[in-house]
Description:
Elements: H1 20-30, H2 45-61, H3 85-95, E1 107-111, H4 117-130, E2 138-144, H5 151-160, H6 176-190, E3 193-199, H7 201-208, H8 211-217, E4 227-234, H9 245-251, E5 254-258, H10 263-277, H11 287-297, H12 302-318, H13 326-346, H14 350-366, E6 370-371, H15 372-385, H16 393-405, E7 409-415, E8 421-427, H17 431-439
Parallel strand pairs: 1-4, 1-5, 2-3, 3-4
Antiparallel strand pairs: 6-8, 7-8
Helix pairs in contact: 1-2, 1-12, 3-4, 5-6, 10-11, 10-12, 11-12, 11-13, 12-13, 13-17, 14-15, 14-16, 14-17
Amino acid sequence: xxxxPDGRLPERSETNAPSGAAQDALTAQTGTPSPAVTPSxxxxxxxxxxxxxxxSVLKYTTELFRGTREILRESYIPSRLPHREHxxxxxxxxxxxxxxxxxxxxxxxxxxxxxxKTAVVAQVRNDIQRRTDLSSLLTxxxxxxxxxxxxxxxxxxxxxxxxxxxxxxIPTGWSLDRVQVAMRNLMDARGGMTILILDEIDRLVARSGxxxxxxxxxxxTELDKARMAIIGISNDLKFTNSxxxxxxxxxxxxxxxxxxxxxxxxxxxxRDRAREVFREGVIDAGVIERCAAYxxxxxxxxxxxxxxxxxxxxxxxxDRAKRITSDHVVKAKSRLEQDLIIDCCRTLPPHCKVLLYxxxxxxxxxxxxxxxxxxxxxxxxxxxxxxxxxxxxxSISNYLSELESLGLIRATIVSRGRGGRxxxxxxxxxxxxxxxxxxxDPLLASLAKPRGRNxxxxxxxxxxxxxxxxx
Length: 471
Ligand SMILES: Nc1ncnc2c1ncn2[C@@H]1O[C@H](COP(=O)(O)OP(=O)(O)OP(=O)(O)O)[C@@H](O)[C@H]1O
Ligand SMILES: [Mg+2]
């Protein structure tokens, strides 16, 4: 589990702060973080010391990495996609008619997260685009629907991809009909064929229904000179069930399923990447296998496998180690899970955050499972303290199910004799990390109290055996 609510694995945020290794090095030398990380007098001695330290950190880093570590990031497009040859061929076959000036069929691509859907489509698109003689006839427009809030912004984004000058661009604030007409006109002015790639199309439908897909899927009947085919990419296998039958049959002309990777396939993917990014001999035997095995258990997600390898390398740097070992992978795994849990908690709706906070508090106090009645009482008290109108018990029950499906809590039915049955809840996250993460939210900030080290509790999450707590 432990994914963001949208099922994706978050990229760790990039900042200008020094890396863990750099910060550790600074702290190790001076006892406190170096003044060099704050504005300082360039001629001061501390700056020179900091520069020496930075030099040593940079020198150290190059012992593990051959080139840029960006190669392990999601944004990097690898030159080869092992174990996706068949899918690359299938996508290429669907798009091949475009090379001869014929409009390809619409295509839907399904597969669980991290199975290479986006990467494969990007590679086929790049291969076609490299044939520059076609560029005047064929336009690719790629939209990640995860970043699109409304049908308006989708049509605007598509239309603006055809705007050759600033004055042609569709602004905000028009009616949806007007945007639609402007988009059509811009496409017709360019003419030729367009392949519209709607990545994460299921999120568009979940957010704004299928109305805009209806518009797009019948656009060819309204365009004069231009023609458009749609490639939809989804990790929700059932998302077409919610579509209007006409939209479904138009989009579903061709369909390709991406199966999850198994552990051996993930090893090949990781080895390929490791060869590009690391110096020879810096990875211990078993490291790649372990990253692959963990990710194979998580639905065969290549993104997760790569994130584990990247974090393991960061852990090795932090230890100032000359090699990446299996221990670094173990540390990376727990770090990745914590990061994911914390990001997941941060994106919960407000009342769900209060509910989770109430559960964590109760669990921290009692160190045993908490009954739903007590959870509801705790939630109500906290809401009142925060000036919120508590939600009805039924909504809280739905939120409990959501927290359970996100893997943040586990609920078991317990019999209460004559009192009937109720649910007993245990926490499946590290309390010591999750409570402060929730308190970062301005909504819950007033609940924060100074927390000493001795308040760090072992939870199921911290216990590798994940045994049920004694009730
Ligand atoms: N066969 C492969 N070879 C090399 N790298 C791969 C392969 N498959 C996936 N990856 C890498 O794994 C990461 C995730 O792949 P990608 O984004 O294509 O997954 P996806 O199926 O689109 O996932 P999601 O449904 O979450 O969007 C990317 O960094 C990608 O480069
Ligand atoms: Mg994708």
